[in-house]
Each structure stands twice: as structure tokens, then as C-alpha cells.
Write a structure and sequence with these properties.
By secondary structure, the protein is of the alpha+beta class. Helices cover 25% and strands 22% of the residues. It has six helices and eleven strands. The strands form three sheets. It has a five-stranded mixed beta sheet, covered by helices on one side. A four-stranded antiparallel beta sheet has the order 1-7-8-6. Strand 4 and strand 5 form a beta hairpin. The longest helix has 20 residues. The protein starts with a helix and ends in a 12-residue tail after the last strand.
Length: 280
């Protein structure tokens, strides 16, 4: 699933290609992707004639700001956008096509068809689902030690489960939670309410630091991720924990192991991330 750095990279790429371009027509080939309005024809009519003003991001959501409306898009597991010449043949996984007056097309492709799209009048998007229920993005001013401390100390869940909860922090997923906890020297199966202030400070620091480095390298390419120009991210070369099982820890040399925490495949160094008194 694309996480915050991948979605930020897609956002920056798409901005270069679609800002100031106008939607001439919209074709929807898989209606379940359209969540709001619940009528596909209404969705089309709202967007036809609208011009892309900017592209923003909240957590893992893309926000396409148009003349009067905002298209809120979640890529889920394998969704991706591409801007291509209108005459280019569509593949079987192309489910929504925004035809532009420039002759190009903004195409949404999704192998698993799990992605979602919501349209709101500008100004209404932050007050309703799905954005209303999100916690702060790590790049927002609201994401600070006091906030994270309060939220983590209120839950007895494993810290990995808490960090994956989008209502606490928007944008983190399995890859970057593993990386943040590794660098913070916190075992993912620690109960969140038992974390010390120093451990929470490390989590806050490394969340921002890891995500920023990943954004600078275009995200992490695992399986099928590419940005809006079809380019792979490169951060996978710098991963310490995620996907590194059976290889030596880059800090201590101990073999990275893979286990399951909060129902998710989880990568740790048993030497750097010690868990005492609890079973995973």
C-alpha cells in the first residue's frame, strides 16, 4: 500500500502534469470506486468543465483541488495515477479516466479495485469522512510530542497497532512503522501506555526524519509502486528493518527477523529492540 512518502511523491509528480488543465469528460469503468456522490453520472457532471488548481495530500489521501470542488482519492493497496496521451491504449485495470482539453488523460488504475474517490465542494472536505476522522499528518504543526504522548498513553494496544491507526497519526503504514520503531529502539509489541517520554520523543523524531528521507528519494518501491510518471522510488535501498529478514542488522550485525504483530508482518532486530515480560 502506498504510504505517506509514496503519496507525497505522486502528488508532486501529478502537479507538474495537470495543474491548470481542464476536465473535458470523465469515464468510469468501475463504479464502486466512486463513493461520493453515490451516482456515477452525478460524479461526472460535477467534474466536467472543472480545472485543476493544485494537488495536496493528507496522510495517504490525495486531494485534487479544482475550480469549485475537491476530489479526495485514496489509492488503497495498488491504486495509481498516470497522465498519458489520449490515444494511448487503456489496460484492463484502468477504472476511471479524466479526459483533459489538452488531449491528455489522467487515468486511475487499480488491480484490486479497492481505491475510493469522494467529491466535495471546496471547504467541506475536512469536515466529513474520510478526512474528518484522520489524526494529524507528521508534517503538520499539530504533530508534536505532547500530542503523541497523550494519545499513546491512553491506549494499551501494542505500539505498532497504535502507530498504524490513522485516527492517531495519518500517513504511517507497515513499512515506515517498522523503520521508525527500529530506529527508536522500541519493540513493536510494547504496550503503548508503557512507553517512556524518551521513547516517545524518539518515535516523534524518527517519524519525521524517516518520512522526510523517503520523500526525498521518491518513496519505497515494493512490488508495483511507481509515481505518476511511471518512475520507481529508491528508499528501499535505505531500509533498516522492513523486508530485511535473514540479513544482518545494519547497526549491530544481529540477524533481522520477521514476526507478526497486530496482524501484520513485522521486521525487528532482536538485539536492538528488546521486549521484556510480554509475548508477541
Amino acid at each position: 500500500m502506498p504510504e505517506l512518502p509514496e503519496v507525497e511523491t505522486i502528488k508532486r509528480t501529478l502537479e507538474r502534469f495537470i495543474v491548470n488543465k481542464t476536465i473535458e469528460d470523465v469515464a468510469v469503468f468501475w463504479g464502486k470506486i466512486i463513493q461520493r456522490p453515490d451516482d456515477v453520472e452525478h460524479f461526472r457532471q460535477i467534474l466536467i468543465g472543472e480545472t485543476f488548481q493544485k494537488v495536496e495530500r493528507k496522510g495517504k489521501f490525495l486531494l485534487f483541488y479544482l475550480t469549485n470542488h475537491v476530489l479526495v482519492s485514496h489509492l488503497r493497496m495498488e491504486g495509481k495515477y498516470q497522465v498519458v496521451p489520449g490515444e494511448q491504449e487503456k489496460n484492463k485495470h484502468t477504472h476511471v479516466v479524466f479526459r483533459l482539453t489538452s488531449g491528455e488523460e489522467l487515468r486511475y488504475e487499480d488491480v484490486r479495485k479497492f481505491g475510493t474517490m469522494h467529491v466535495f465542494p471546496i471547504g467541506q472536505e475536512q469536515n466529513e469522512k474520510p478526512l474528518r476522522q484522520l489524526g494529524p499528518d507528521p508534517f503538520e504543526a499539530a504533530y508534536r510530542f505532547e500530542y503523541v504522548q497523550e494519545r499513546l498513553q491512553k491506549t494499551t494496544r501494542w505500539v505498532k497497532a497504535a502507530l498504524l491507526d490513522q485516527t492517531i497519526i495519518a500517513g504511517l503504514g507497515n513499512i515506515y512503522v517498522d523503520e521508525v520503531l527500529f530506529l527508536s529502539k522500541v519493540h513493536p509489541a510494547r504496550r503503548a501506555h508503557t512507553l517512556t517520554d524518551e521513547e516517545i520523543k524518539r518515535i516523534v523524531f524518527y517519524t519525521k526524519e524517516v518520512l522526510q528521507r523517503a520523500v526525498e528519494q521518491g518513496g519505497t518501491t515494493i512490488r508495483s509502486y511507481v509515481n505518476g510518471a511511471g518512475e520507481m522510488g529508491m528508499f528501499q535501498q535505505d531500509l533498516y528493518a522492513y523486508g530485511q529478514e535473514n540479513t544482518p542488522c545494519k547497526l549491530c550485525g544481529t540477524e533481522i527477523i520477521k514476526l507478526k504483530v497486530a496482524g501484520r508482518g513485522t521486521h525487528i532486530c532482536p538485539q536492538c529492540q528488546v521486549l521484556e515480560g510480554e509475548k508477541v
